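Lab meeting notes turned into a lecture example. A postdoc, R.K., suggested we walk through two folding results consecutively so the class can see how the record format repeats. The first protein's sequence and structure tokens come next.
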Amino acid sequence: MSGNATDLIQRMLNGDPASFHDIIAWYADDVLRLCFLLLRDEEEARDIFQESLLKLAQMVKQGRFRTANGSIKGFLLTTARNLSLNRLRKHLRYEPIPEEDDVHSPELVNSYSPLQATNDARFESRFDAALAQLTDLQRTVIVLHELNGESTENIADTLDLTVENVRMHLCRARKHMRRILAPFAGEL
């Protein structure tokens, strides 16, 4: 994809509207996953992804986005992360207390086993709670590395950190997640 990414940047700079469809096809999953895990709200994640695309379009239109500035994916992930964190800070005081997970949701009703569905829901709830206890930076690093499959070098470039710093945050995040989720491992 790296050769295609260079071509995509050039197509964007030339004003090819199909290039944005390619951006969505190539990068939407990773950016949306990051946004969703930071915000824990699918609609908010989609809004942030759209805002990130608009910021990219503005940069291209103003002639400020060049290959030397970094990759499209890096720009989108960094922008989405910053917008997500800003949104969280903005709504922090006004966030309603979430209701308990509905054990009768369609996902659980249609699952292959009531016991497995209950265990999955409990694990997901504990996993989300563990993620929420991480710092913003630790959460971002672990999502990018473990769920998006990004290398520590790419994460360092994207977040403007050193590789050692990324590894430190990743290590602390893993240790914290392990500590919180360890009691649950015996229940499965």
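The second example is placed directly after the first for contrast:
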Amino acid sequence: MAKVIDADESGKQNLDAVTEALKEPVTTETDQTAEKVSSDSAWDNKSPEELKAILNEQKNMIGRQSNDVGAARKEAERLKVELEAIKKADAMMQGHLNRAQSQEPAKKPDYYGDPESAVKSQISSDPGINDMRKELDTLKVDSIKRDLSSSHPDYAEVLASGDFEQWVSESPMRRNSYSAMNRDYDIDIAKELIAEYKAARSDTTQKKPDRAETVRAASSGNVTGSTEPSSGKKIRAADLRALQINNPSRYQELMPEIMRAYQEGRVIN
């Protein structure tokens, strides 16, 4: 038999359930989302003008940041180039330093221990003195050329000829004189060598008398005797050179007679 529920009892239970339900507020998911947006949003109270200003400020800030990044990149590139240049300069300086250390240090002049060498070293390293020395050498050479040309106008051709060089090489004394002439610019030795060379070549190129003419002259009684250009005393060239080296002042005094002896063919080897 079915159970019969009292209507009064059922209505009371429903009323209690409704009352209990009304004690706690009912919150739906949509209401929760709307409440969160309302509480978290920072733009709810902003006007359109304010929102536009905020947007422009954000754009300007982004532009400034981009410019700062570009400037930072350029500065980094510049610093990189400078660093490479510094590295190259440092490597170059290190190379110079290594070469300088490997070279023997220059010896300082010792004015107390060896004053003569110190003074010579100082003079030889002075560019002004070197220029003056070159100028004086040039003037000296010009003077020698003029003096030598007055005695031997053809001196340049003689000194440049291969025959003269061959003649000089045939005698050790001539080689020494030739070296002294070039080393010391000795005009007297130059004059003597040229005169001696001309005399030697004059003797070798002198025409020998024809034998038939000699016989005819002898048969006719027309023999004139010796064909020597002069009856003066013969002089050895080696003796003249020795005199010039050992007693140059006496050699200068006898220079006119010596030149005459060369011209007369009385200087022999």
